[in-house]
């Protein structure tokens, strides 16, 4: 069965073809980062318009690379939510129009389920059950995953998401948007002893997070020095202090979640999962505490069409009726993962 995946929830347009027999056939992606950079964040209206411009050429490229004809597609999966309403509507209308034109069923996919299952696309995928840390631009959650559609929320952020903390702190250091990769690169040159920033909720008894105080700590350091006086080495030192603090908290909560559930497999998903310092610290903890940690391929950490095609294909393998010839544009900009039905 060949599933076409369409992702358009935020500022990446992603198209992919996944075959349940042969695996991922091809995928194509366009990131709008350069377009939004001058505004310091995603401008929803510009995002929607750009998805419209990019989707069809990306679809043609994906079909060509996979050597698949439109008629060979068995079902179309699109990101139904959560995300920006206008951006989601573009993907949904493209998926539904294609479905109607080709007489193929369509299936709305939860964006976070796409992220959660993305490590299963790697060459050495984890088996169920596992603990998943979802660390993206909009979410920071620990989940127990027993199978496709079987997710139990163990803890989550009470305020900012980890990716948001990276982006906001990077902005305070004048590093542009999105700041995650930039602050991570700069931290490599920083002195870990220069700034000891707070580790919010590190010792709380639960599996929740809070990152807004960390961002405020970065702001306070920058303000105290006077933004104009923060030299390059200082910036690197602050970046290092920030990265060390956030990584400490993320790793400690992952270890606590494994202990609480008694599981030995940890899966990392979402954009912050691309972070090299986080990966190094998790690998070290895994060796010490004897668990295994799994990551998505680097290119599938941030938003992409492959994870949507894959999540759609997984749901369809369990329940072929999950895709329907119902072509109403139906998006859910707000959609808690625990409202997702078991297949
Ligand atoms: P959501 O999936 O919650 O709706 P999103 O789709 O915007 O949010 P992703 O695409 O998964 O989130 O990830 C983007 C986030 O990942 C951004 O905040 C970005 O700064 C962060 N990020 C990407 N690469 C890195 C990195 N190497 N280090 C730290 N953060 C990173
Ligand atoms: Mg993005
Ligand atoms: Fe995402």
TrEMBL record:
One of its GO terms (biological process) is tRNA threonylcarbamoyladenosine modification. Binds 1 Fe(2+) ion per subunit. It comes from the Bacteria. Its main location: cytoplasm. Substrate binds at residues 134-138, 167, 180, 275. Its EC number is 2.3.1.234. Residues 24-310 form the Gcp-like domain. Fe cation binds at residues 111, 115, 303. Its cofactor is Fe(2+). One of its GO terms (molecular function) is tRNA N(6)-L-threonylcarbamoyladenine synthase activity. It catalyses: L-threonylcarbamoyladenylate + adenosine(37) in tRNA = N(6)-L-threonylcarbamoyladenosine(37) in tRNA + AMP + H(+). It is found in: Cytoplasm. SUPFAM superfamilies: Actin-like ATPase domain. Keywords: Acyltransferase, Cytoplasm, Iron, Metal-binding, Transferase, tRNA processing. One of its GO terms (cellular component) is cytoplasm. The keyword GTP-binding does not apply. Gene3D superfamilies: 3.30.420.40. Belongs to the KAE1 / TsaD family. Required for the formation of a threonylcarbamoyl group on adenosine at position 37 (t(6)A37) in tRNAs that read codons beginning with adenine. Is involved in the transfer of the threonylcarbamoyl moiety of threonylcarbamoyl-AMP (TC-AMP) to the N6 group of A37, together with TsaE and TsaB. TsaD likely plays a direct catalytic role in this reaction. This is tRNA N6-adenosine threonylcarbamoyltransferase. The lineage of its organism: Bacteria, Pseudomonadati, Pseudomonadota, Betaproteobacteria, Burkholderiales.
């Amino acid at each position: 069965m060949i599933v076409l995946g369409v992702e358009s929830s935020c500022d990446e347009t992603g198209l992919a073809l996944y075959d349940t027999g042969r695996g991922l056939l091809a995928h194509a992606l366009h990131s709008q980062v350069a377009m939004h950079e001058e505004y310091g964040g995603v401008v929803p209206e510009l995002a929607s318009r750009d998805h419209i411009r990019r989707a069809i050429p990306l679809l043609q490229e994906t079909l060509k690379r996979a050597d698949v004809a439109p008629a060979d597609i068995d079902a179309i999966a699109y990101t139904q939510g959560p995300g920006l309403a206008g951006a989601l509507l573009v993907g949904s209308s493209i998926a539904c129009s294609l479905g109607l034109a080709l007489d193929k069923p369509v299936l709305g996919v939860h964006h976070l389920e796409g992220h959660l299952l993305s490590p299963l696309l790697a060459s050495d995928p984890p088996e169920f059950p596992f603990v998943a840390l979802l660390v993206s631009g909009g979410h920071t959650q620990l989940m127990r995953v027993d199978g496709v559609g079987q997710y139990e929320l163990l803890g989550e952020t009470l305020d900012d998401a980890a990716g948001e903390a990276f982006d906001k702190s990077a902005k305070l250091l004048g590093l542009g948007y999105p700041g995650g990769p930039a602050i991570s690169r700069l931290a490599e040159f920083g002195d870990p002893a220069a700034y000891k920033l707070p580790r919010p909720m590190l010792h709380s008894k639960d599996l929740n997070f809070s990152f807004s105080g960390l961002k405020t700590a970065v702001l306070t350091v920058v303000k105290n020095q006077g933004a104009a006086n923060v030299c390059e080495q200082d910036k690197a030192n602050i970046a290092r202090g920030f990265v060390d603090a956030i990584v400490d908290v993320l790793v400690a909560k992952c270890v606590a979640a494994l202990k609480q559930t008694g599981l030995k497999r940890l899966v990392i998903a979402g954009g912050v999962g691309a972070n090299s310092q986080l990966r190094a610290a998790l690998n070290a903890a895994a060796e010490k505490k004897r668990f295994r940690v799994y990551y998505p391929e680097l290119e599938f950490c941030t938003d992409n069409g492959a994870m949507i095609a894959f999540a759609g294909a997984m749901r369809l393998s369990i329940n072929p009726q999950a895709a329907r010839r119902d072509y109403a544009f139906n998006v859910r900009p707000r959609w808690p993962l625990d409202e997702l039905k078991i297949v």
